[in-house]
């Protein structure tokens, strides 16, 4: 029935810790206060370390209970715990030393200093647990923070949808994000340079030490805009010249917002904002070029294996599990070399087998690549007879068949593909047949090339 | 003691005399503190140091500086072909159509345009010079292209024009450096070096960054425009000759067989390997690698740099003639190199500095001849890349280092013998095409004279930021530590041009 006592005692840890800290600091100070050859304080010092040790033990016990009941992770608390125990043990040890001795010798002084250090570190770690890692650094200027290695999540600025951007709120979705990105680091509730807080509209309207920063309808007389367009060298220019500057569009948007009355609720369309001004903030909702996978990046060893086999092999982008493989320096590649690629077949997104010795046989294996997006088979001996197998590839977007023997009817078999966007077949029987083939209605762009630039009379006139 | 040494000695004595006891004490205290703080604050990147000196944890990059790396994020382009028209072509005769300017032809330039401005050669009050070309709109995009570029006009739908480019250098050398390295002063790595450093090369038998020149001269700024600056020199552009041996001394001398060469190189490499085992300097490994690459290059370079094997219709398309050094040949070579996995190909064509000092440098005659030299080849390059599907992943960039004035040049205040335009920094046109570029667009508007951009202006840094973006880099995060601070291609400037991204 009194089970609640244990967690309650645990929760008192942040309170109880101050008891040993106070007593021990008192004890340590006493070690250094008296002048030389004066040992009058010794009995008090003994008492301080004894009481401090007991208090540290009680605080440590409550701390352990808090760790048990409040779900702290062992990795987070372990050093703090060891520090707490050390503080308690150190106090008792010092008590014993002071008891044995009748004078305040150097050994005791140095040990007391050590105890103080251990206690400070322990206390700091404890504070970090309750207040968070960034408690101190948060209030520092952004430059200092990054100097100290803090990872600051950068403000992204406005982000608008491709569709219906006209109905976005001008203030909430555009202006405040611009202020967050360019101004907030120095003008926020914690760091109010010039007594100005730009983190929300209510505080913005309160102005700063020089008065109001906004006059609705009059941008030139609103410091919020006017200071942005002052020459960069001007003392009053904002943001300070050494800080990142807002873009032309961002400044123009703030101007438009003020000119149209600095309203809180107004859409972009109502304020008459042209698309040009917000183009850069539009999130292009393009489907990503390569399929989205959960695959981890390939291990360095496997990548090195591929490279030593002769392939050019690299992640399609940093951190991606998908691979780009080409045979640029591996023209000897044959069908049997496929076994070297088979282990990474789920990773193959861009595969260039151009100029290799591969044959039709390999198309069976190629057709089973789930993430293949770009496939280049230029200048290979494929006949095109089994080209339709490639139509099964679920993600194939670009297919290169230049300088092969594929015919137009074989390419038509690719119509079954649901993903194919472009097929290149320059310098093939297909490209020769094309001019007489009529309307083919390919669902993808078919590029047969054979471009020419007919001679013009001006080609030969020399002025 | 000569006078200079005397001066230095005097300076030293003066300095000492001004140094008081207080200065000395303050220096001691403040600098000791600094010394103590330094490792705490910055850590001096001990990991980085130990990696290169211990020789134990060598990355692939240490062994082979050109080893490929994945792009930080998915770039649309994997290669760049950059066509630089050295000397700066006139935007007013090619792409930026200004009918208003024609009305002011031969009239004195309004004072308002000249106030507070400096030009390279124009003095006093020059006359305006109307467009000398006939303009019409082309393709579905309705792009304005003049009759100086009739072939290119047919592919205008493939490109995105940047019509309000501006720079801040009005002399060729500094402006070319600025355009290629992001700084008008020497010492910064070129765009191509940055990209090669960031991505490595795909074809291990070819350099990652190849430079070809035409027009009879190399750019005014010299080879620094493709230099590697403070990046390791392995990332600088390799200039190949389009006539004769592509790389000098690449052919083995007569009497030297391939086997003998192999033996020589393996003996050298063996000696180097022993050196490496003794001293552990990774530079030795990179040297070993370079010997091996040079040996492999001997096979692949002559093959890829030879245009004779191309079919006749390719020669007709590009207008190439084998055996000569021309922009056309270089365009065809650029396509071949990119097809073979070269990361960056840069073409410099010299001869666009149309001041009107002579026939060749005239806006109405010399410029036409110059345009004819590039018109077919660059149109052919775009079409050829398109039909091979290479335009999907190759970025093509065209432009000069600045633009030309809407005023007629009046060198030394005198009327010139031919029609010419002076250097101009406030407005010029460039275009981009291919991987990740929104084709058929025109970005940037200039005033009625084509004197300055009035909207959608693009700085050189903005252009660099956009090119790096298309290659898969965030220009603000792509840095190299040098002399105690991280350096960027765009320094502290540059904004992405979102409107030309597909």
UniProtKB/TrEMBL annotation, chain A:
A GO molecular function held by the record: metal ion binding
Superkingdom of origin organism: Bacteria
Cytochrome c domain span: 170-262
Keyword Hydrolase: no
Organism of origin: Algoriphagus lacus
Keywords: Heme, Iron, Membrane, Metal-binding, Transmembrane, Transmembrane helix
Transmembrane intervals: 15-33, 45-65, 77-96, 108-127
Lineage: Bacteria, Pseudomonadati, Bacteroidota, Cytophagia, Cytophagales
Protein name: Cytochrome c domain-containing protein
Automatic annotation (TrEMBL), chain B:
Origin organism lineage: Bacteria, Pseudomonadati, Bacteroidota, Cytophagia, Cytophagales
Pfam families documented for this protein: DUF1501
Protein name: DUF1501 domain-containing protein
